[in-house]
Amino acid sequence: MKLSHFRFDLPEDLIAKYPTENRDDARLMVLDRKKQKIYHKSFKDIIDYFDDGDLFIMNNTKVFPARLFGRKEKTGANIEVFLLRELNKDDKLWDVLVDPARKIRIGNKLFFGENDELVAEVIDNTTSRGRTIKFLHDGSYEELKNTIKRLGQTPLPKLVRPIVESVDTERYQNIYAKHEGAVAVPTAGMHFSKQLMKRMEIKGIEFTYVTLHAGLGNFRSIDVEDLTKHKMDSEEILISEEAVKIVNKVKERKNNNVCAVGTTSMRTVESSVSISGMLKPFEGWTNKFIFPPYDFSIANTMISNFHLPQSTLMMMVAAFAGYDFLMKAYKEAIKEKYQFFTYGDAMLII
Known about the structure:
Elements: E1 27-32, E2 37-42, E3 55-59, E4 61-63, E5 67-72, E6 78-88, E7 93-99, E8 109-112, E9 118-125, E10 130-135, H1 141-151, H2 166-171, E11 179-182, H3 194-202, E12 206-212, E13 235-239, H4 241-253, E14 258-261, H5 263-270, E15 282-286, E16 301-305, H6 312-321, H7 323-335, E17 346-349
Parallel strand pairs: 1-17, 3-12, 3-14, 4-11, 14-16
Antiparallel strand pairs: 1-2, 5-6, 5-8, 6-7, 7-10, 8-9, 9-10, 12-13, 13-15, 16-17
Helix pairs in contact: 6-7
């Protein structure tokens, strides 16, 4: 398929600026692929579509405060540094994005905090806005990480709001987040509350966890019309032996649903599939790009937010729901004023 197939007009007022008061109060659009019908529900109604023995696969990555504001040496110019991923723990090297890029060159020192508690040196250019920086820090690794956490801000996408508010500290994170490393929250999981998950457990619904440290590649624009030529950014994933046993046991029963919670969970499990179509343990990196047509091996149901036009996330959901059916659903979502993007509403594809 082509990039232009995923273009549609999204009114700006449908991009959610704030989360719902309660996580499970979000609206839920249910897409029934077999009947080709669409239903309008509340997210807490999701429990009605699953039974004893069904399984949810969730991404337990944890977002860290990746956005730093500081100043450049000598000129004192204000700069923003967005931490993408740690390259080398011992050498304190990080892959980052900088703004304004034209003012930040190799050899520049960058200072963060009122008393310059954190200092970094630019040691390489990676892309037009990308840099490699080295933190000049004499303390322990834990002291460095604690300083970054103290000075950093929640990496809320600026398309949501340019200024982070107190509500974002808690809500730009899933309640089951565990392993720190993401700079973007897996949004489909944001709708799960403790109360909803407890009700699901009482019904006999199971949960297992995989890890994909979501990066800014989720929001990077595609600049090629031929989707086969697009290269995804690599992201670190972990699929444990325990998760594999749980997933494969449910799949072997054949009469239970396996639901991938979000595109990151789906990308993770689809990155490590055996010839027989079962899940395999894996620890490493994935740059898997899923777009129509694609045969999914692990999950037979999926939860997703409403994504931006021409995004890789939307393309994966189209591969799962069926392109024509998803475009019909998006058209209806706009008509019914569903909220899109990070803090937006959800869809369940069955």
